[in-house]
Amino acid sequence: MPPPRPPVPTPSPAVVLVHGLRTSSRIWDGQVRHLRAAGCRAVAVDLPAHGSRQGEDFTLAGALATIDDAVATFPTGSPVVLVGLSLGGHVCLAYAADPGRATLNGAQVAAVVAAACTASPRGKPVLAYRALAAATVSLFSRLHRPRAGSPVTGPPRVSDDVGHPPGTGPGWEVVTAALGEIAGRSTLRDVAAIRSPIWFVNGARDIMRLEETRHLARARDGHLVLVPRAGHDVNTDAPRAFDAVLDTVLTDLQDRAAHGHGARLDP
């Protein structure tokens, strides 16, 4: 009897990082450097209406297609780790919950790191935030209604947009568009449908940690990490701690593969 063939290794894990509202892929610069230094393929994407794509309209379908495009750049069969912050976290959970997308291009969604997104986008808090965004855009339009012959200017651009030079980030109109797309969607339902491990990462000072216990309970394989002294933008508030979480996730995947659980990863 011939000796058994050694298992054929699958490609090393690839990581897709998805930013939140009114930011861009640049918020992940530190994490991309860290992951690539560790030998991982890593790409941070711009969602529609953000970063290099500010001229586009935001839609959930367009956001999911953005991850499709990123996954398609990886070798066939690559285990993929989705990392999302806030809006990006909701998008990653929606992607991983879709069985048709979870295996796109022969890839496997091996894990999801869902940061600052354990509050379902529905109910009074979301309605209030949408109303604030709509009022901001409406007030600007009234105060800055162009006179005849004067150039038309867009909605306000603020200087605190993470990942954009001052005055160049997306305005509040993208908030109403994005929340309109995801409002009423059950993140808890998405979490329950995901078969791969989910790592919920929240800043201890984030006031949006409204349902973290419920999200953890719904996950088939869930883990919760609270980062001390960090707020909503946990990856930029505490970059070293966030990098350590990513290291833990990748090590966990390696351990699972070594024991025959989940995708086999190259050492």
From TrEMBL:
Top-rank lineage group of the source organism: Bacteria
Official protein name in the record: AB hydrolase-1 domain-containing protein
Stored Pfam families: Abhydrolase_6
Region listing for Disordered, in residue ranges: 146-166
InterPro entries: AB_hydrolase_1, AB_hydrolase_fold
SUPFAM superfamilies on file: alpha/beta-Hydrolases
All residue ranges annotated as the AB hydrolase-1 domain in the record: 15-242
